[in-house]
């Protein structure tokens, strides 16, 4: 007899199994962990050690359920966080099984016997999985009347992470995260049994760029943030989903504020971008919002040469008057900087063309090249993950990735995590073109292609040649690996410092079919490319030289035919040169630090010499010091907008803090435009985005760059070729006022190989003096596997501000000598 | 010696006193290679090398040899799980195979492996050679408990001797078979007797049990196929190769054949190692050991170390093999027979055992780590005369929350002495908290009460 004769058996989909959980049938993909299947049914099994992004551990035993296999009940309750689903499995969770319920209550009681009752003063109280699950799956009172285990607390395991061992339930999420995800196993279990505890080795703090994640995934209040500890209760916080402003990954974040102040930031969950992780810079560096250097009122330089606060009306009128005069006297240059939202960058791009009547706009506040412009037009603008562009998910599935001009761990931490995941889980082959085997390269299993600074292009060209010649070599291996479908080449913006490198990448991509992804260091760079904040590109990927493009943009902007300038503009270096020699009348400058430019001294001279200087800034800076008019603009937390991350993915965010009285750049520029008698229609970020969206996005189909590889400098006696790149935690402006974060910065070293150290008379651990004709700096020496005759310095770390101090860059010659000697020619 | 009736009819059984595993122990310099060779040592190698490895695995399967480390898993089957190279060059079969000897003898009361390695190290080495050949391993590690320094020295000397004589190293006896044996000293953790924790420890990691699957047979040492066997198991192998599976099966019982070393300790006249066929009873063992010390009657005993539920005088005739012990509600374990007479307080003994488990819990999982921490405090409190009427039930419930809930068998083992002691001696626990105990308090409790004076201050000072 059939009880339900019309019930048809649906077949189990390919690669799936069918099981029953609490009486409900469900199909699950083979290999799925049981606790995940339960989640999909809305059945929440309590857990502590389980985390969907960590390997299963089965340590806490909180998630026990009853399981029946093949009609036979298993003798013991099973940990649902380690068991994979099987066909015909019958699962009874705490909702339908007394055994499971008792097992869970029993484990909860055991977890609580040694847990202190300090919830009222615990940071985690109110958002604590232990608290919540003790309520849902625990008993109301304890039978434990014995002595609790106590520890001195808190224990600082780094300057930003504090450990409370009494609260710890030893789920090992933190140690597993550090070992598996970050690859920084500086935190581990010590002792055993009830004395077991999390700890660090003597004199070896928990050194990781990702340590803050352990605070977030800790299911109890055992790991707390030095910066946030005791600052607030979760239920007093106002939480706003946001986007991180620090690098081009565009991580989803959550901003938690109280009384108008950001108190902490957490990683948001976006599986296609940052999963649930955030680097420590993204997590902890937000105090610049409260900096004493913040500017909140416009300022105008009076006749006496002193900047004084002014009303918006007066300041905008002064700025408009000065800019109009400058426009007639050589023209205006616009340097928006690389930290803008796409809406703001668009406003700058439109301001330059409409109000400035010029293509002299360049967001690149860093070393750059004409080659880069061609590369961006050919490979970057208009690409998108949905459209075959490089993406985080693409990296995860890539058979091979070559990174060029970027050390992902230092310059784009979330890219690094994704590469490491792909290497650990999916057998990614990572090749890194650089000077030495960095920590990040080691932790992603990278094969390092060593290049003398400046010779990077030649190394890539040689790889192609080796491959053509056949035989076995790293080059052949590289070309072969990149020729596998799905392979990716990631290029950082440091490629601009090595002539011919962008062209070599372009050629290698053409040869292998690898997808190219451009990973600039700053959050706004990619959006600025799309928004046309470049001398050669209009918004939406149109070339300024393309009549059709100009017509399209003219139509969108409602300006007459032929009104847009058709001559490509000058790049940032040329704009500054023109400003310095007086051929340019005025500058509009956004968030630009002259020290980031290839030649900070020249940039400062240009800012001094230019006839009229308008600065849009959130804080006092070298630019505001020299500006004729300073217009305050809103930081991210006090505005809405979006970044375009390196993938080309738009990352929107909303207002997190009270924004009354602060205006975003696009609004300021719009009003300034009106003062100059030009309507920009960028009053709000939404309006700016709407217009940019109407212009659309396209790949211009520009030809690939074909620049020759550069000459490599040959070091003479007492000299070395300088290699330089930035470290994640360094003297960045946006990381100011964060001593806890700064405490985890990697120490700055001058790195050379052993042979070079010997030639230059350097000793590991002792200071070396690196000098140019402009200055010198002194750093302890560390030995690494650099090419002969090369010295590497961090670009902007304490004691090592390379560009402002030495006035040289990647590939230049510097004098190197042991400290205390007079040797070394520059 | 009085023979139980069911054994008298088993005419095929050899005399229990014909030793196999211990037959060389009393010879002069029994540990030396020369003595070993004189007493037919290394004679099984020729037979083994003449056979195909698969035939050896089949031989061990046929012999019915079961693991002597406590769980009694069929040894031949374990060897048969090792994936062998199918010629594809892929999968676990293509990886190197390893043999790891678990010589981390640490179960309370157990002292059979260390005497074996001290008195007859070459029998283990010979077994390692045969086993490695059978599973096609060229590397074998013997993981010895770190405290057993003499034993480690003797074993290393024996390995060096065997290597010098060509039994180890490259091209053993001209067969083309290579084998290196490393004697590794553990660092003194009971948990490293758990095979996956042992493997982690051997790899230089923190010794904590691994998640299974994957099992060591496919992903053991260095993620390669690995057989982990107890010392006594492997030391039994040469005799099986020489004597054959039928001979081996002539000893012991149908499902638990072969000889076994019983470590008899405690209140007996002659404590020590007694080799007997599996299935011997405590009554017989006591006769071999000269009876209860000073004639004080038996109160309770463990059949196989403290992790096996204890027995009482009513279990004197339980056959001590895997099935017999299990049917009577305990386990054969390591056949560490600890005998306690009537002067011993059960709660006190259980407290001492529980202190051991609390000390040795590795800390990985909640039930074992926190449960033993709690149980030991209840027991110490009870023994110190501060127990409450609810303590017994609380302990049973905590045990229920540990048994079958912990990550590995250590947690399960920690509950055995408590639950079995309460099963047989509940009144003695209750008497501890009663004003007028039905059973006289033994000496240990008086000692404990004296010691309480000092502990008192600590307890009240930091009470939860």
Task: Report on the architecture of this protein.
The complex is a heterodimer of chains A (826) and B (464). By secondary structure, chain A is α/β, with parallel strands linked by helices. Chain A has 26 helices and 35 strands. In chain A, the strands form nine sheets. In chain A, strands 1, 2, 3, 4, 5 and 6 form a six-stranded mixed β-sheet that branches. In chain A, α7 crosses α22, α8 crosses α23 and α14 packs across α15. Chain B has 464 residues and is α/β, with parallel strands linked by helices. Chain B contains 18 helices and nine strands. In chain B, the strands form two sheets. Chain B has a five-stranded mixed β-sheet with strand order 6-5-9-7-8, with helices on both faces. In chain B, α3 runs parallel beside α7, α6 packs across α7 and α6 crosses α8. Classes of the chains: A alpha/beta (826), B alpha/beta (464). At the A-B interface, α2 of A face α14, α15 and α16 of B.
Low confidence ranges of chain B = 1-13
In total, the number of strands of chain A is 35
Question: Structural class of the secondary structure composition of chain B?
Answer: alpha/beta
| Intertermini distance of chain B | 56 Å
Mean pLDDT of chain A: 95
* Whole-angstrom Rg of chain A: 29 Å
Going across the biggest sheet of chain B, name each strand in turn.
6-5-9-7-8
Structural class estimated from helices and strands of chain A: alpha/beta
Q: Which strand-content bin applies to the residues of chain B?
A: 5-15%
User: What coarse outline of chain A follows from CA principal-axis ratios?
Assistant: globular
Instruction: Extract low-pLDDT stretches of chain A.
Output: none
Q: Cα distance, first to last residue of chain A?
A: 96 Å
Question: How many runs of DSSP E, i.e. beta strands of chain B?
Answer: 9
Mean pLDDT across the residues of chain B is: 92
Biggest beta sheet summary of chain A:
6 strands, mixed
In which range does the helix fraction of chain B lie? 40-55%
Strand residue content of chain A: 15-25%
* Annotation field: number of helices of chain A: 26
Q: Helical amount among residues of chain A, as a percent range?
A: 25-40%
């Amino acid at each position: 007899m059939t009880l339900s004769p019309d019930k048809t058996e649906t077949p189990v989909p390919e690669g799936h199994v069918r099981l029953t959980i609490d009486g409900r049938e469900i199909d699950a993909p083979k290999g799925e962990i049981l606790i995940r299947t339960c989640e999909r049914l809305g059945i929440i099994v309590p857990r502590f050690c389980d985390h969907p992004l960590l390997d299963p551990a089965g340590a806490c035993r909180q998630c026990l359920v009853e399981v029946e296999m093949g009609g036979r009940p298993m003798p013991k309750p099973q940990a649902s966080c380690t068991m994979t689903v099987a066909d015909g499995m019958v699962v009874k969770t705490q909702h339908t099984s007394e055994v499971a319920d008792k097992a869970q209550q029993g484990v909860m009681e055991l977890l609580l016997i040694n847990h202190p009752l300090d919830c009222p003063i615990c940071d985690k109280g109110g958002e604590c999985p232990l608290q919540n699950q003790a309520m849902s799956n625990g008993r109301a009172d304890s039978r434990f009347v014995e002595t609790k285990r106590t520890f001195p607390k808190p224990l600082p395991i780094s300057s930003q992470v504090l450990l409370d061992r009494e609260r710890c339930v030893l789920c090992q999420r933190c140690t597993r995260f550090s070992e598996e995800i970050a690859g920084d196993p500086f935190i581990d279990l010590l002792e055993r049994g009830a004395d077991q505890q999390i700890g660090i080795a003597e004199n070896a703090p928990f050194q990781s760029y990702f340590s803050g994640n352990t605070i977030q995934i800790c299911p109890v209040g055992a790991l707390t943030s030095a910066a946030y500890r005791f600052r607030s209760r979760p239920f007093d916080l106002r939480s706003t989903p946001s986007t991180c402003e620090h690098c081009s990954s565009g991580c989803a974040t959550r901003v938690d504020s109280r009384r108008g102040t950001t108190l902490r930031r957490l990683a948001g969950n976006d599986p296609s971008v940052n999963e649930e992780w955030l680097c420590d810079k993204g997590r902890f560096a937000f105090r610049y919002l409260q900096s004493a250097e913040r500017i909140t009122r416009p300022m105008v330089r009076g006749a006496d040469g002193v900047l004084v606060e002014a009303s918006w009306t007066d300041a905008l009128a002064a700025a408009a008057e000065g800019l109009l005069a400058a426009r007639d006297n050589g023209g205006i240059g616009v340097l928006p900087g690389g930290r803008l939202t796409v809406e703001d960058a668009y406003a700058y791009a439109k301001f330059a063309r409409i109000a400035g009547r010029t293509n002299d706009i360049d967001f690149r506040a860093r070393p750059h090249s004409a080659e880069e412009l061609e590369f961006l037009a050919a490979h970057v603008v208009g690409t998108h993950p949905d459209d075959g562009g490089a993406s985080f998910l693409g990296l995860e599935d890539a058979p091979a990735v070559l990174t060029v001009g970027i050390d992902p761990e230092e310059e784009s931490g979330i890219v690094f995590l994704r590469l490491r995941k792909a290497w650990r889980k999916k057998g990614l082959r990572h090749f890194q073109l650089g000077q030495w085997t960095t920590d990040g390269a080691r932790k992603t299993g990278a094969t390092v292609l060593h290049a003398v600074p400046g010779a990077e292009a030649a190394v890539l060209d040689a790889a192609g040649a080796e491959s053509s010649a056949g035989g076995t070599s790293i080059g052949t291996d590289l070309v072969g690996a990149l020729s596998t479908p799905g392979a990716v080449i990631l290029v950082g913006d440091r490629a601009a410092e090595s002539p011919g490198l962008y062209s070599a990448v372009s050629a290698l991509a053409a040869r292998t079919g690898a997808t190219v992804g451009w990973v600039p260091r700053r959050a706004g760079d990619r959006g600025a490319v799309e928004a046309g904040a470049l001398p050669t590109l209009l918004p939406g990927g149109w070339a300024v030289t393309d009549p059709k493009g100009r017509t399209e943009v003219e139509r969108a902007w409602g300006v007459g035919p032929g009104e847009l300038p058709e001559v490509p503009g000058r790049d940032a270096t040329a704009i500054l040169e023109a400003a310095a020699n007086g051929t340019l009348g005025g500058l509009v400058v956004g968030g630009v630090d002259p020290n980031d430019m290839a030649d900070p001294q020249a940039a400062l001279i240009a800012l001094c010499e230019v006839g009229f200087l308008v600065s849009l800034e959130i804080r006092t800076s070298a630019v505001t010091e020299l500006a004729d008019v300073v217009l305050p603009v809103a930081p991210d937390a006090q505005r809405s907008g979006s970044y375009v991350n390196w993938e080309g993915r738009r990352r929107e965010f909303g207002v997190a803090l009270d924004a009354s009285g602060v205006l975003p750049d696009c609004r300021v520029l719009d009003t300034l435009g009106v003062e100059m008698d030009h309507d920009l229609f960028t009053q709000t970020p939404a309006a700016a985005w709407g217009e940019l969206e109407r212009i659309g996005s396209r790949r211009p189909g520009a030809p690939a760059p074909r620049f020759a590889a550069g000459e490599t400098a040959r070091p003479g006696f007492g000299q070395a070729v300088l290699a330089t790149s930035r470290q994640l935690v360094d003297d960045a402006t946006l990381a100011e006022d964060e001593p806890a974060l700064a405490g985890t910065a990697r120490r700055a070293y001058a790195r050379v190989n052993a042979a070079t150290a010997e030639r230059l008379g350097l000793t590991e651990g002792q200071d070396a003096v690196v000098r140019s004709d402009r200055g010198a700096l002194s750093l302890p020496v560390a030995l690494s596997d650099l090419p002969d005759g090369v010295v590497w310095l961090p670009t902007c770390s304490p004691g090592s501000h390379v560009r402002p101090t030495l006035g040289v860059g990647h590939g230049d010659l510097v004098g190197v000598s042991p400290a205390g000697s007079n040797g070394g020619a520059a | 010696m009085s023979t139980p009736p069911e054994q008298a009819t088993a005419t095929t059984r050899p005399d229990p006193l014909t030793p196999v595993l211990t037959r060389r122990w009393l010879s002069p310099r029994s540990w030396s290679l020369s003595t070993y060779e004189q007493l037919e040592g290394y004679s099984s190698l020729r037979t083994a090398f003449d056979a195909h490895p698969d035939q050896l695995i089949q031989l061990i399967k046929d012999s019915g040899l079961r693991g002597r480390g406590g769980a009694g898993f069929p040894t031949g089957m374990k060897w048969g799980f090792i994936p062998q190279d199918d010629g594809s060059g892929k999968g676990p079969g293509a990886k190197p195979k390893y043999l790891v000897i678990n010589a981390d003898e640490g179960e309370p009361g157990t002292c059979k492996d260390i005497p074996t390695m001290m008195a007859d190290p070459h029998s283990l080495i010979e077994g390692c050679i045969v086993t490695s050949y059978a599973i096609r391993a060229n590397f074998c590690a013997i993981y010895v408990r770190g405290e057993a320094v003499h034993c480690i020295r003797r074993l290393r000397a024996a390995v060096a001797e065997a290597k010098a004589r060509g039994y180890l190293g490259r091209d053993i006896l001209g067969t083309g078979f290579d084998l290196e044996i490393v004697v590794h000293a553990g660092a003194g953790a009971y948990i490293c007797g758990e095979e996956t924790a042992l493997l982690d420890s051997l790899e230089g990691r923190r010794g904590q049990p691994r998640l299974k699957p994957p099992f060591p047979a496919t992903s053991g040492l260095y993620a390669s196929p690995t057989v982990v066997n107890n010392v006594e198991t492997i030391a039994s192998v040469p005799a099986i190769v020489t004597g054959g599976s039928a001979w081996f099966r002539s000893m012991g019982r149908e499902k638990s054949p072969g000889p076994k070393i019983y470590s008899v300790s405690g209140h007996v006249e002659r404590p020590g190692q007694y080799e007997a066929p599996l299935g011997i009873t405590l009554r017989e063992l006591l006769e071999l050991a000269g009876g209860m010390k000073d004639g004080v009657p038996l109160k309770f005993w463990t059949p196989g170390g403290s992790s096996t539920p204890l027995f009482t005088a009513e279990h004197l005739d339980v056959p001590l093999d895997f099935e017999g012990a299990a049917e009577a509600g305990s386990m054969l374990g390591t056949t560490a027979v600890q005998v306690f007479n009537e002067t011993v307080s059960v709660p006190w003994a259980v407290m001492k055992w529980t202190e051991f488990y609390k000390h040795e819990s590795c800390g990985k999982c909640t039930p074992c780590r926190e449960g033993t921490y709690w149980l030991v405090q209840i027991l110490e409190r009870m023994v110190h005369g501060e127990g409450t009427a609810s303590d017994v039930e609380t302990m049973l419930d905590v045990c229920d929350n540990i048994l079958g809930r912990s990550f590995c068998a250590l947690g399960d083992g920690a509950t055995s002495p408590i639950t079995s002691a309460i099963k047989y001696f509940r009144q003695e626990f209750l008497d501890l908290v009663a004003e007028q105990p039905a059973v006289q308090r033994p000496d240990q409790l008086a000692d404990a009460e004296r010691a309480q004076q000092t502990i008192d201050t600590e307890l009240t000072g930091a009470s939860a």
